Amino acid sequence: MLIFLSWVFAATASVSYDNKAVLINGRRRVLISGSIHYPRSTPEMWPEIIQRAKYGGLDVIQTYVFWNGHEPSRGQYNFQGRYDLVRFIKLVHQAGLYVTLRIGPYVCAEWNLGGFPVWLKYVPGIAFRTDNEPFKWEMQRFTYKIVDLMKAERLFEPQGGPIILSQIENEYEIVEYEIGHPGVAYTQWAAGMAVGTHTGVPWIMCKQGDAPDPIINTCNGFYCENFIPNRNYKPKMWTEVWGGWLMKFGGPTPYRLAEDVAFAVTKFIQNNGTYFNYYMYHGGTNFGRTSGGPFITTSYDYDAPIDEYGLPREPKYTHLKDLHNAIKQSEEALVSTNPIIASLGQKQEVHVFKSKSGVCAAFLTNYDQQYSVKVRFGNGQYDLPPWSISILPDCKTEAFNTAKVRLNGMHMKMVPWSWGFSWESYNEWVGTASDEGSFVVKGLKEQVSVTWDTTDYLWYMTDITIGGDEEFLETGRLPFLTVASAGHALQVFVNGQSVGNAYGSYETPKLTFSGRVALKPGVNKLALLSSTVGLPNIGLHFETWNAGVLGPVTLEGVNDGKWDLTKWEWSHKKGLEGEALSVFSFKGSSSVKWTGGSSLAIKRPLTWYKTTFDAPEGNEPLAVDMISMGKGEIWINGQSIGRHWAANKATGGCGKCSYIGYYHETKCQSGCGEASQRWYHVPRSWLYPKGNLMVVFEEWGGDPRGISLVKRTT
Ligand code: GAL
């Protein structure tokens, strides 16, 4: 019966699958895939990145679909610019590659709110990713929106398009495990809903051990050679080969060596895997306020084979290209049979794929973590470095060994190109509890419920009246202010003066500010500026996680001992004045008075800076070096290139790292003690030849004279 079912599927659709592989037009394939997320680069960069991916040996480009980019307000769609999904897919098609479309619409991906639009949080009665009617309604609506668009553009493979697979949900099994029955029901519903869209191509669910038929469950991870699909008529697929790792503000730069990535992939292939996808093949940039986490950096470089700027990262790119070549040469043997495994020594073995028709491919593996060995196989002798595999596509000649890297590393440099810009500054309004556009309530409001994430910023302001009889006025022992916040960063002002800041981390977004504050007799203005650094993208019901100052807020060292300010009247004001005036745009920048020369504000908190510059000649990718700055956001010609936070230095372990041995996300890291992210990508296509406007908002205080424009070159 099962055999019959899969046969029918194979015969009627041009993409199908069996126990061994995905079949395209009836032919089993080994498919080599890489994740490239379209909004993480620019449409102008897409053709070259896709070409590089093709040249690197990929067959498939895998991308998520980013709901919050496509439907920023409910019912108002955006498929333009970096969100021109159709254009992206057509470019992939033109390059002769296939697409795996991960619709989600939950995507995780270190993307703001995991891809969900913020308005979705405020749909009455909603709970994300469970058996909840309002959620299922919205999820289904968006899934159909995307599938219908793809159909209308004839982008599914049976229609002549490049899409061979689609994904519904993302790594749901962990949530299902935690919430039990409603999770099981939701999985069943999501699967049925997806299949009911009739795309004509198979659906996949990653990390979903109970994926209902006919959906294929797939593996994500640093290793997947031991993964087994939930039915014996499904192929073994690896949707996320973590060939690098994500970066956080406050964390070092993770990397994973090419030898180790190649070893992990080859182990998967020699153990019957026939589809794998690098996550990421090109990571790119979290432009604007798209990064999630919270605390995910603006760079999403990911140590990917194509770097953030679209350039090949060597030796990784070429080493993996060589691997792909060897796999392709072995394809026929790999898809026609299961391997026969034999021992070649204590820690050595061989996997032989030999088909009835006579094709043969062999994989010689040395698991030893210390020693190189010589092994005999057939009539040959082969040298295997520690922790490596050699691929013999004809069972005779070594075409590739995972630890023998042909190219030397190519060192990319950030070369200063222009600096000494003529900056002007404008002082942002500092909360004094009397501004229009604010509202007063008793107690403190959760931040995102006020801002709906239209801005990172929310002011919390209250008046503290100090009587003339307060003892501290005599003793000079200043009262002690404590502010507890759900995150993510906080700046404290008293009577318009900054008294300090505090911030959380990816691991612990919560923070507490504490410090002595100079209060004077009479009314004092306490103003707390809370800022978010991307909304969470992972975790059980992450949509319910709070941000902002929720208290307690206390003042110790007054005559009464301690005041609890938490339930006082607080004035709330969302966003910055400069944001409301769009001072980062050409038009808006003329609406305020800027000062330069000797009146330029330096190291002053809450300051906007602007300058103009001409585009550097040539075509090397560009970045701004923000090493002299603290925390804030950068705009080029009115478009945000992302949050900067060079003042957040990397803590962690940056020891020596070898490709040998099992990898984990903190095994190989660099940049400890330095800014987690110093350079910020400026897309070439955002520039005019002359007169480009750069605007920086600085929260903590920085010296813009240290900002330079750099070129990325070898
Ligand atoms: C996976 C997830 C991806 C991404 C990755 C970490 O679990 O599916 O979307 O978040 O982790 O980079």
Describe this structure as you would to a colleague.
Mean pLDDT is 96; it is low at 1-12. The protein is of the alpha+beta class and 714 residues long. The protein is globular, with a radius of gyration of 28 Å. 18% of the residues lie in helices and 31% in strands. An eight-stranded parallel beta barrel has the order 4-5-6-7-8-9-10-12, surrounded by four helices. Strands 32-21-33-39-35-36 form a six-stranded antiparallel β-sheet, with no helix packed on it. β1 and β2 (22-24) form a beta hairpin. α6 (173-179) packs antiparallel against α7 and α8 packs parallel to α9 (316-329). It binds beta-D-galactopyranose (GAL). Beta-D-galactopyranose (GAL) binds next to loops.
* Poorly predicted parts: 1-12
Strand content: 25-35%
Distance between the termini: 59 Å
Number of extended strands: 40
> Within the largest sheet, what's the order of strands?
4-5-6-7-8-9-10-12
Query: Mind describing the biggest β-sheet?
Result: 8 strands, parallel, barrel
Ligands, deduplicated: beta-D-galactopyranose
Shape: globular
Gyration radius, rounded: 28 Å
Q: Which whole number gives the mean pLDDT? A: 96
Compute the number of helices: 14
Helix content: 10-25%
Structural class: alpha+beta
Blueprint of the fold:
Blueprint: H1 2-12, E1 15-17, E2 22-24, E3 27-29, E4 31-36, H2 46-55, E5 60-64, H3 67-70, H4 85-94, E6 98-104, H5 133-152, E7 163-168, H6 173-179, H7 181-195, E8 203-206, E9 216-221, E10 237-242, E11 253-254, H8 258-270, E12 275-282, H9 316-329, H10 331-336, E13 340-345, E14 348-354, E15 360-366, E16 373-377, E17 380-384, E18 388-392, E19 400-401, E20 413-418, E21 424-427, E22 438-442, H11 447-451, E23 457-466, H12 471-475, E24 480-485, E25 489-494, E26 497-503, E27 511-516, E28 522-531, E29 549-558, E30 561-564, E31 569-574, H13 577-580, H14 586-589, E32 595-596, E33 607-613, E34 622-625, E35 632-636, E36 639-644, E37 669-670, E38 679-682, E39 692-698, E40 708-713
Parallel strand pairs: 4-5, 4-12, 5-6, 6-7, 7-8, 8-9, 9-10, 10-12
Antiparallel strand pairs: 1-2, 2-3, 11-37, 13-14, 14-15, 15-18, 16-17, 18-19, 20-40, 21-32, 21-33, 22-31, 23-28, 23-31, 24-27, 24-29, 25-26, 25-28, 29-30, 33-39, 34-38, 34-40, 35-36, 35-39
The structure holds beta-D-galactopyranose.
The site of beta-D-galactopyranose (GAL) has 9 residues, from loops.
